[in-house]
Amino acid sequence: MRAMRIHRYGDASEIREEDVPRPVPGPGEVLVRVEATSFNPSDLGLRRGLLRDVFPIDLPVTLGGEVAGTVVETGERVIGRAFGAAAEYVAVPARSLVAAPTAVPLAHAAVLPIAGVTAWQAVFEHAKITAGRRVLINGATGAVGQIAVQLARHAGAHVIAPARRPGADLSEVVDQVGAPVDAILHLAPVAAGGVVSLLRPGGVLVSITERVPVPGVHFVTRDDAGDLGGLVALVDAGVVQLDVLTRPLADLALVHREAEAGLLRGKTVLVIRGR
Ligand SMILES: NC(=O)c1ccc[n+]([C@@H]2O[C@H](COP(=O)([O-])OP(=O)(O)OC[C@H]3O[C@@H](n4cnc5c(N)ncnc54)[C@H](OP(=O)(O)O)[C@@H]3O)[C@@H](O)[C@H]2O)c1
């Protein structure tokens, strides 16, 4: 099968399309025929070797951290966290998979296991957003941010999603927001800076990027099929809409280069084509 792999850490030229054997599922795993995987900013750190202390891997390795596809044995359409999904097939722990939404193309649902579940856990688990809260979301245009905005609005919150001018920093936001907020979701890869001053006393600051001072919360997304299933239900109900750009998997190295150059816009899904 075709797979996008790296044999050593380095720049995007290390990403190679190779012909490798299909993975053989281990105990508790199923083989999934991949429809799509998606690009996440952390893929850059993994490729460069920056995550090797927190996430040790044996090289060579197939890239891709989440999947939308079909279980080979049963034909079920599924999504889930899946390491090595930038390939035609991937073996995935069955407990990580849930039924894919039916309201959107299967490939588009490849954004839900990481960006979607991160947004879910930020909004509901860490910030505990409820009706009537004033919530500031930094990075609202990003993959996580777009879904977080929809989830917070669905919870009945008043969402403030400040616009960012190219080159401007977050301290500008302070002028746009005015009154203090009950919660800040910091979903942008920069320092939260002066924005933190907008939090009311006792409010909650949740970050998925920089570590923030206690009592703020920084978290790394947990693989949670329950949360993923909750998101699928909201996608099928039309509450959460997915805005994605699809590219062929063969473009993966190019996508990495565009992301590093700051040229990638929107959430990129990589579709397996031309089997
Ligand atoms: N902790 C975790 O478990 C976890 C999970 C998922 C993601 N993450 C991290 O969270 C971040 C967001 O992920 P994502 O997938 O949503 O990324 P993304 O799609 O690239 O979105 C990034 C967001 O940050 C904004 N941004 C970028 N540079 C900025 C700056 N200098 N000032 C203000 N805003 C800026 C972008 O705004 P523009 O649209 O204006 O560029 C966009 O809204 C990434 O750093 C990612 O690695 C962490």
From TrEMBL:
SMART domains: PKS_ER (SM00829). CDD domains: MDR_like_2. It comes from the Bacteria. Pfam families: ADH_N (PF08240). GO terms for molecular function: oxidoreductase activity. Residues 10-270 form the Enoyl reductase (ER) domain. This is NADPH:quinone reductase.
